[in-house]
């Protein structure tokens, strides 16, 4: 698989100094003759707006509510607004999602996709680091522990 020029530049930087930092990457990218340069927004007004949107997404995700599970008396903490994709990305209040079957299905679909992604990432690293057996055992213990806790509740 071929690497893009900007990936090669990052690899060379890491080889040279032993690691990467965001500050070092941005500094290198300031040079318009680098492949990294094109990977950044250099119009300060546009970059500021993109950063504000990133901050807004972070703020939305930080708001939590404490809810009691309907069948149990346990109080759990969940995000107050959840990402629901309906043509565009929207952050919908959890109380609205709870009463909207399509939105609930979209959120569950998104969470399961996240879970599959994490599992795949875990296994790629475990295989690369030759720790597959340890990871599988840890996952099995985690699943068993959660199943026991759910049955007790």
Description:
- It is built from six helices and four strands, in the order αααββββααα.
- The protein is of the alpha+beta class and 153 residues long.
- It has one domain.
- A hairpin with a 3-residue loop joins strand 3 and strand 4.
- The radius of gyration is 22 Å and the shape is flat.
Topology at a glance:
Elements: H1 5-17, H2 22-29, H3 44-62, E1 64-68, E2 75-79, E3 81-85, E4 89-93, H4 94-98, H5 101-128, H6 132-152
Antiparallel strand pairs: 1-2, 3-4
Ranges with pLDDT <50 over ≥5 residues? none
Query: How many beta-strand elements?
Result: 4
Number of domains: 1
Assembly state: single chain
Radius of gyration from CA coordinates: 22 Å
Task: Quickly count the helices.
Answer: 6
Strand/helix succession: HHHEEEEHHH
Roughly what percent helix? 55-70%
Q: Strands of the biggest beta sheet: in what spatial order? A: 1-2
Features:
153 residues; alpha+beta; two-stranded antiparallel sheet; two-stranded antiparallel ribbon; 6 helices
Overview in brief:
61% of the residues lie in helices and 13% in strands.
């Amino acid at each position: 698989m071929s690497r893009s020029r900007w990936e090669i530049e990052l690899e060379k930087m890491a080889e040279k100094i032993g690691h990467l930092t965001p500050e070092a990457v941005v500094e290198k990218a300031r040079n318009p003759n680098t492949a990294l340069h094109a990977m950044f927004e250099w119009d300060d007004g546009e970059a500021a707006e993109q950063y504000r949107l990133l901050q807004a997404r972070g703020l939305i995700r930080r708001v939590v509510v404490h809810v009691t599970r309907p069948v149990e008396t346990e109080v759990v903490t969940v995000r107050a607004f959840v990402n629901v994709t309906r043509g565009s990305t929207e952050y919908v209040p959890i109380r609205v999602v709870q009463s909207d079957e399509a939105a609930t299905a979209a959120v569950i679909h998104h969470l399961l996709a996240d879970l599959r992604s994490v599992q795949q990432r875990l296994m790629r690293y475990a295989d690369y680091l030759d720790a597959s057996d340890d990871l599988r055992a840890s996952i099995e213990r985690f699943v068993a522990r959660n199943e026991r806790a759910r049955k007790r509740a």
